[in-house]
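From the shared-data thread, chain only:
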Amino acid sequence: MIRNRLKLDEFYRKLDAEEKLSYKEAVRIYDALYKEAVALGTISHENIWDGFEVDLRIAKTINGLKHVRKANKKDSPKVRRI
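Structure, as tokens:
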């Protein structure tokens, strides 16, 4: 669970500044991770896009909820925290 979003953002900014990967290196890492996932049976060549539409709809819904929640905070000073 992320407890301090600002610290996490700062960590990623520092990581990006320190790690300079070339495009070629990034593709090589991606390919190695993909091959490992296929070898472990996590994904296969046939099912790489299976369920993508569901994941996309869930992501859109979650992102939409964030916008609604921000609007509610602005509109009402008494917002119930979940």
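The first helix runs from residue 5 to 18.
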